[in-house]
Amino acid sequence: MTPITEVEGRRLSLSNLDKVLYRASGFTKAEVLHYYATAAEALLPHLRDRPVSFLRFPDGPDGQQFFAKNVPPGTPDWVRTAEVVRSDGTTRQILVQDLPTLMWAANLVTEFHTPQWRADAPGLADRLVLDLDPGPPANVVQACEAALWLRERLAADGFAPCVKTSGSKGLHLLVPLRPVASADVTAYAKQLAVEAERALPRLVVHRMTRSLRPRKVFVDFSQNAAAKTTATPYTLRARPEPTVSAPVTWDEVAECLDRRDPDPLVLRAPDIAPRLDRYGDLLAPLFDPEQARPLPGAAG
Q: Which of 95, 142, 91 is nearest to 117 (CA)?
């Protein structure tokens, strides 16, 4: 029998709780749900009001994976949705506004991916993201070197970037913005990527061309485009182990580079609650209006 639980007054059916999803560590679906419940206070503000794309992996990371943007069949009528206009037409997508919706979505076994804009202001970005993706044999150590250079470059424009792991092999830099057209943010982010490549030609590449990326860190600026999404802070990832796209401190980034040791920046689901107890949400500045700055050259 499928267990029924009540979350903040909403009845949910939770299925296959004993199913092992992450075989390398024996991490079960029940543990996935427990993780999302314990991380919800930090995670929900990063999801709220942003149309969600799901990367689903119902049989674990070793099984089938597929992106889902449209509202799935069987969605409860209390789950909020938003209309999203895309180049190929209009769709409706889920808004994860509260704990019941989060737990319902987590029961589908998902990564959460969100755009840099909110549903009430489509195409107006309120944050910038730079995705630092190392090409093997480069790893997060090289990404840390690129991140520290970009931190200083962003500081020169008045920004104080936050940083998180991608949950895979790289890093994401995030900056709060006064809302501005996504196309303008993409252009600015590309400028930063080009400058990073010029300053660190042995380390950084700004073009996606696969042949250019081995041993270098690809600074992916394209995720600022209105149609693109990025792994939401605190989402689990579909990797061999239950790694999390988790915020880290700049001291941790510098220490990773100094020690040339990537392991401390591989953060897994059991690591997150103690980190939240210690640091709170390291990405809280993204929600502080005093931290949001205008894009260089933008009006206002």
A: 95
